[in-house]
Amino acid sequence: MRNILFALVAAAGLVGCVGGIDNAPTPTPTPTTPPADGVGGGTGTGANAVAARTAFETNVYPVVSAKCIGCHSSAGPVGNVTGFVAPAAADPYVTAVGYQALVGDRTATGAPILTKIAAGHNGATYSDDDKSKIADWLSKELTARAGGDTGTGTTGETPADATIRLTKEWSGCMTLTNFQTANMKTWGNMRADNSACKTCHYAGEYGQIAEDVDNPFFTTISTNKYYMSQYFTVDLSGGVAAAKVVINTRSFIGVGTALAPHIEHPRFKLDGSAGMIALQKFYDLTAAAKAAGTCGPSTLAN
């Protein structure tokens, strides 16, 4: 039933909602972005960040602009909820990396840009070279976020390996009891301008879920890595050996302050909000379970 609801609201464009996509023709985005701190959605700094961006602009953008822009243009019509391909005149890199629902956890098995290709999305075909270029770009994104640490000679894990392992472990540490104790369902009634988050994100629309009931909100973010990544992400900024799960504040800041590519999303305040208080408490309770060694096995279904 929820899948049917999602399909209907996505097709209808959720009139009045502007979540993961700007639902009107997009003006030229401003160059302002959150600090490139390497945390969560950060792009890292230095030569590795330049290499990641260059890989996208040189190798990946030509692929997605040729195969995806027909349905996923950021300047597309109302109802286009996944406009991750910017017109050439805009900034294609900022637009792409700004969509958590496109890059996911930036691993080959956790980035929707690759998993949807593997599933035969919309009947489109991609060459091995196309897929290799996308995978190489994502790998460079993770390396940039890890300060250039590829894992060789340290833990033996690559940034992708560490991301996958930590995400799985975190899922097994989250519990419904702690979710309820933290009052995470308050996210459903968080306000963006005059609209509650649940108005546009109740069934997972726009790659984000925010409900005012405990379930299936909890089940969704604890079993689906794409939705989990909107709330929690892996911080690689200290290198692979020091990688850890953190709250994905960067994603929320980008959307809440309407930074590119979310320039038409209603504004909301994150610091001190009921949602952030709840998320911090849920994070602390989950981290405590991990530290105590009381977690269960991974609950991820993807």
3D architecture notes:
This protein is mostly helical and 302 residues long. The chain has one domain. Helix content is 46%, strand content 4%. A two-stranded antiparallel sheet has the order 1-2. It has a two-stranded antiparallel ribbon with strand order 3-4. Helix 2 packs antiparallel against helix 7 and helix 11 crosses helix 12.
Walk across the major sheet and give the strand order.
1-2
Instruction: Count the E strands.
Output: 4
Number of helices: 14
Morphology: globular
| Proportion of strand residues | under 5%
- How far apart the termini lie comes to 20 Å
Task: Please give the largest β-sheet.
Answer: 2 strands, antiparallel
Let me know the average pLDDT.
Answer: 79
How would you classify the helix and strand content by structural class?
A: mainly alpha
Summary keywords:
mainly alpha; 302 residues; 14 helices; globular; two-stranded antiparallel sheet; disordered N terminus; two-stranded antiparallel ribbon
Task: Present the secondary structure layout.
Layout (H helix, E strand, L loop, with lengths): L1 H11 L33 H22 L1 H4 L19 H6 L2 H4 L8 H7 L9 H18 L13 H15 L2 H6 L9 E2 L2 E2 H5 L15 H7 L1 H7 E4 L8 E4 L1 H8 L17 H19 L10
Antiparallel strand pairs: 1-2, 3-4
Helix pairs in contact: 2-7, 11-12
